[in-house]
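Notes from the 1:1 (GR / supervisor)

We went over the backlog. Supervisor wanted to see one worked example end to end before approving the batch request, so GR pasted a single chain during the call. The sequence is below; no edits were made to it. Supervisor asked that the structure be written out right there so they could see what the output format looks like.
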Amino acid sequence: MKITYRITLLGLALGLSGCATGSHPHDPLESYNRAMFSFNDKLDLVLVKPAATVYRDLLPSFVQTGVGNFFGNIGDVWTAVNNLLQGKLEDGLTDIMRVAINSTMGFVGVLDIGSEAGLPKHKEDFGQTLGVWGLKSGPYVVLPVFGSSTVRDTAAFPVDFSADLWSYKDPVHVRNIGTGLRLVDQRAALLGASSMIEDAALDKYSFTRDAYLQRRESLVRNGSSAADYDD
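Structure output shown during the call:
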């Protein structure tokens, strides 16, 4: 995680929070979105965050790293496809090489040998691809359980879901366990960032909305790695 970016983003959020009660040009559904955000926040507080805290505190860090690497390697396949669809051939070939190396020498992705070999990790999805193709993001919308999105990213979500290789894993009970583990691992990685927001006593909804919209715009405009805008 990039501490400098966190501090910068926090400072930006402090400035934005001053006008949190005003209308936002990209949030015409704010009333609905705030209600859904509150529901998701309560669900996280009661279920997901406690599970992530136990996961972080009980499992050795190398196990958590291995879990993140494994599912990250699966995600690199779809990232490669999207980089190629966006015309970023060099990044797409890098992603393919990462998958090949990590899936073999890295024990099906548990070890991130690709990064050690100088192959940078990217994170691309179909919503970003649609943005690169010129499709506007549309209004901000908060989805049940899945959280922040836009009309464009929501339309792209079924494609991203269908392209996730883990969604085809058999038997089903292994797939479900893995999906739960992936969710908890991803939430555990964000525990520090969520605590930072809560400690700053911000309007969490406005912070999340503005951070999401700015991050997505940066990714679409610059083609930057998601690691540059972590959290």
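Supervisor's comment: Residues 1-21, 223-231 have pLDDT under 50 and may be disordered.
Batch request approved.
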